[in-house]
Amino acid sequence: MDKPRLGFWGLWNISFGFLGIQIGFALQNANMSRIFQTLGAELESLPALWIAAPLTGLLVQPIIGHMSDRTWLGRFGRRRPYFLAGAILAALALLLMPESTVLWVSVLLLWVLDASINVSMEPFRAFVGDMLRRDQHSLGYAVQTFFIGAGAVAGSAFPWLLDHLGVANTAPPGTIPDTVRYSFWAGGLVFFLSVLWTVVTTREYSPAEMAAFAEADTVGAMPDTSAPLAARGYGGSALWIAAGLAVAFVVEHFALAKEMYLLAALLAAYGLASAAAIALARAGRSNNMLAHIVGDFSGMPPVMKKLALVQFFSWSALFTMWINTTPVVAQYMFGSADPASPAYQEGGNWVGILFAAYNAVAAVAALTLLPWLSQHVGQARTHSICLAIGAAGFASFLVLRDPQALLFSEIAIGIAWASILAMPYAILASNLPQAKLGIYMGLFNVFVVVPQLLVATVMGTIMRQFFPGEPIYTMAFAAAMFLVAAAAMLRVVTPRQAA
Q1: Are residues 206 and 331 in the same domain?
Q2: DSSP calls for 360-373
Q3: Any idea what DSSP says for residue 331?
Q4: What is the DSSP string of 253-272?
Q5: In the chain, which end has fewer C-beta atoms inside a 10 angstrom radius, N or C?
């Protein structure tokens, strides 16, 4: 028994909610550094203030993935309850964010916003795999990427559009401009309504139907990965804890940035979590969330492990870009590093256009370039080529000083972004057990989040030590990371190629 083949409107409906999710994500990416600096944050402190984004993803996505795999609420389904709950919370955070008048309130709201986006986003990744036949996975994730690109264009460009319509783009020191305020309010409304569209227009397959589909699928089932924990020793756990203590010692001994203690805490925390999971399994209590998450993480399929390395380097570059593009463009292309100046605010608006440009390119490339290239050279080489093109886009920031010329840089970055959003997930969905698609998609996000945490904790220290007041060099780092990811992608050979 195989899943029905979905037509145009079926593909449209299952991914339409991502339009709103990405509008919220784009507003966050393009404007949070601007908001933080408006409320008094120093340039070197931006990575630490952004720590909420990756940390909430690290904690929320595996938990939501595990829970959604095991949820069934009748006609409300498996994934859709999480879509809706996350959308409600994210919409509220978007409405409140531009009302911040002190820095700590905006930081707190970023935690709420990013956690809520992750609650909605994670099940959407698994939802495409749930609803589509294996031969439609590539197309399904391409359609999802189209909505991601379209939503990001709208979210990134909205402040610039309001400015050109006469809405105030400057404000007294410590006050967020009306262009940003109205953009966040509109984004919250669209976020909720687009997710509601997917919730109302789709029907998920019941557990019985999913079981029937899995019976005809050679990779539809997988042995329980939590049970073997009982046979494992505590040596691996001790190594994780020791790594955390070693990082903490280095931070203290060399007086590095205090936010690096978070990295030490995360390493030690995983060691403690794995030790607890082993202890529970040895006591005959392996059927719990902690044991399942630790077991599934250590028992990832080989293709997922190789893709994880690619994701690690890719997202190191992307997070660097999101944090630093506004300071780079404002300082080097518009001539001002002062957040209160009109030139800086003009630069901030132009960053919105640049982000809109790379997302628009991604939306088009997802439905045109990627299918054509994948058909001719294969999925792995397609992704490698696109990442190399993106590296050239980042490198061009080092030599260009005309803001308009940066649009060519964003074309290259947009091609890479399209591939990052589509190709790894299409490969995974076709090579993972359907019964664990939620948890594995959530765990795959670890390799999206961990590099962001490293950038957030380490980049500020590197910039202060070697390039004080010169954020342009972060783009050289991003280019290098994309090149390493492109090379790592050549090692990925899928046991079952997606159509």
Answers
A1: yes
A2: HHHHHHHHTHHHHH
A3: I
A4: HTT--TTHHHHHHHHHHHHH
A5: N
Query: How many separate domains does the chain show?
Result: 2
**Contact between residue 176 and residue 184 where contact means Cβ atoms under 8 Å apart:** no
Residue 2 lies in a domain: no
| Structural domain contains residue 498 | no
**497 part of a folded domain:** no
Which of 242, 276, 295 represents a domain boundary (last residue)?
Answer: 295
CB distance 300 to 62 below 8 Å: no
Q: Are residues 196 and 338 in the same domain?
A: yes
Domain shared by 232 and 380, yes or no: no
Question: In terms of residue numbers, what domain contains 145?
Answer: 8-223+299-489
Please report, in tens digits, the pLDDT of each residue of the chain (499 residues total).
678 889 989 999 999 999 999 899 888 877 888 888 888 877 667 767 777 667 787 888 889 988 988 888 888 898 999 999 999 999 999 999 988 888 888 888 888 998 999 999 888 888 988 898 877 887 888 888 899 888 888 887 788 889 888 888 877 877 888 898 999 999 999 999 999 999 999 999 888 888 777 654 544 445 566 667 777 888 989 999 999 999 899 888 877 767 678 778 888 999 999 999 999 888 888 778 888 888 888 888 888 999 999 999 999 999 889 888 989 999 999 988 888 788 888 888 888 788 888 888 998 998 889 888 888 888 889 999 999 999 999 999 999 999 999 999 999 999 999 999 999 988 888 778 777 888 888 888 888 878 877 887 777 777 777 888 888 999 999 999 999 999 999 988 765 443 3
Q: Are 482 and 394 in contact (CB under 8 A)?
A: yes
Domain identity same for 45 and 122: yes
Same domain, 215 and 278: no
Contact status, residue 358 vs residue 26, Cβ threshold 8 Å: no
Same domain, 414 and 338: yes
Sign, Cα dihedral of 21, 23, 26, 28: negative
203 domain-assigned: yes
From 246, 267, 295, the end of a domain falls on: 295
Question: Crossing angle, helix 52-69 and helix 80-96, to 10 degrees?
Answer: 160
The two three-digit tokens of residue 264, written as one number: 């030490």
